[in-house]
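Suppose a colleague, Dr. K., hands you the sequence of a protein chain of 235 amino acids and asks what its three-dimensional shape might be. Before reaching for any lab equipment, you can write down a predicted structure in token form. Begin with the sequence itself:
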Amino acid sequence: MSKFDFLQQQLDDYENLQSHQDARLANKLQHVQAWQKARMQQTHADFFAIPAHQPMAHYFLNRLYGADDFNELAHQIGRFIRNAHKVEKILPKSALQTGDAGVELAVLAIQLDEQVAKYVLDNYPSDTPLNDDMMRRAYLAVDQAEPRLHQMQLLETLGEKLDKYVRSAIVKAAFKLSKGVAYRHDANTIYDFIDDGFKAMAPLHSAQDFIATFTAKEKQIIDAVHTGHPTPFQL
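The predicted structure, expressed as tokens, is then:
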């Protein structure tokens, strides 16, 4: 079994998104993603402002939630899979497992936000600016409590992988040595995606601790949305 099989499934899920075929939905998805990022920045402002937390906060907001370059990453994953027999040994297995977790999170975030975007597009005039109450109603209508909690669980798993692998001198050395080969095989986007997670981890005592604090607040908001709190995003 190829170590790219899991990435193939993520690529399939990404390519099956409706927004790739619907320009209006794609545009609304961008608005939803922008709202999500702004909301997270506001919710976690004090936590993200701590200097040691800023690289991981940037990784969350720009890699795991609506990454602008995810199309290129998906294209590169597809190319790798088509040439798996040539590139199986480029990236260490442990580093690729961390990348798997990050890619899965990124795809899931887009899938969930696309559902929200579709609801907003179907129920409000297209030029209506997003606001907290619209998003609260959208969350309830598409009933994302379980998927959003699963998203938090995946984040916690990513934290475990980062702590396990980034703290290993052997893994770090092997990953660093693989950079030249990865770049020569046009795997720079995949390498950089994983490397950004490793670099974000560097200033932290523990990625798991950082993520646990983040997910605890997010779970509180998810619960508030689905138990009828009138302003869940202001908690």
